[in-house]
Amino acid sequence: MSPSKPLTGDSSIKTWLEDPVGGPIIRDLLSQAGQDPDVLRPVHRLALKRLIKLSKGSFSQEMVDQLVARAAAGDVPTGAPAASAPDAAEAAEAAPEAEAVERPEWVERIDQGRFTGKTVIVTGAGSGIGRATASRIAREGGKVVAVDVSQERLDDFRAEHDGAEVVTLVADITDDAKIAEIIAAAGGRIDGLANIAGIMDDMTPIGDLTDAVWERVMRVNVDGTMKLMRAVVPGMLAQGYGSIVNTASEAALRGSAAGVAYTASKHAVVGLTKSTAFMYGPSGLRVNAVAPGPTITNIEASFASPLGAQRVRQAMALLPDAAEAEALAASITFLLSDDGVNINGVVLASDGGWSAA
């Protein structure tokens, strides 16, 4: 067996956890914070340094440098849990490979002019997939109308994109008056709409579902999506061009990804997408949806039903690694842009193959 390579900030989290020196160091750090190594499972293929951005300040470059220095010095804490062998799922995944090969990380590549001259509305732009999508459009030359419920998140987004054409607006997408403000903020021309704002349910099956959860989820995920689609269509028809991308979900393709409210809401988003694509396709509009799989966002799921928790967790046994929001933004901006010129009425599963399982 060849000696392991020195651990660096570019080494994957999985490599760190399985290393005889790095594993105990990482586990000790996690145990001091009251956490288990399983918390890193969704991101285990990412480089350790990527945690700096994902942790939103709780993991710093200084901490990465300290970990790398400790690993190089063989500074294994006394009594720290040892690095463990891969679990059964990881072993099965690695079985076909003659020896472990670290997969190269995906790197976002910006096309500087892809959205030049275009105005795109992005909801949920303060965080997660919405923020990554708005950011990519802005960096590729487009004017972005960034919509979110948080002024603080929008201010932070604007500060990160100094020099780009960004209009921010705090708005509840279920409010008709706010919908009118969003349209007005675009300034007379809307070339694209990315309907990304949404909320999760509490994983309840229909027997445990409350009216409050049903109404809240449907109001945001379906009514809000519909209202913005309805608002942008007249202008798009007048100019003979427009691209709308809605955010569906794996829950729009299967019944085992969430509770009944969220699942029904995302099936409804697919219906909105397909009907609108069919009706207005000959008029120059393209309407598509992206169905994300596990993604690192700020949308959190809670389990209000023991049955819901049991069934959904059981179905997630084949869950692929979580993707970063930028990977979903790549799918969304492809469909929004002229690169998707011949694509209309599709639901693109951007899920690492989960829907093929």
Automatic annotation (TrEMBL):
**UniProt key word Coiled coil:** no
The record's listing under InterPro entries reads: NAD(P)-bd_dom_sf, Sc_DH/Rdtase_CS, SDR_DHRS6-like, SDR_fam
A molecular function (GO) term: oxidoreductase activity
Q: Which UniProt keywords apply?
A: Oxidoreductase
Q: Where is the composition biased (Low complexity)?
A: 80-98
- Record's keyword annotation contains Oxidoreductase: yes
| SUPFAM superfamilies tied to this protein | NAD(P)-binding Rossmann-fold domains
Q: Where is this region: Disordered?
A: 76-105
PANTHER family on file? DIHYDROANTICAPSIN 7-DEHYDROGENASE
UniProt similarity note: Belongs to the short-chain dehydrogenases/reductases (SDR) family.
Protein name in the entry: SDR family oxidoreductase
Q: Which organism is it from?
A: Agromyces bracchium
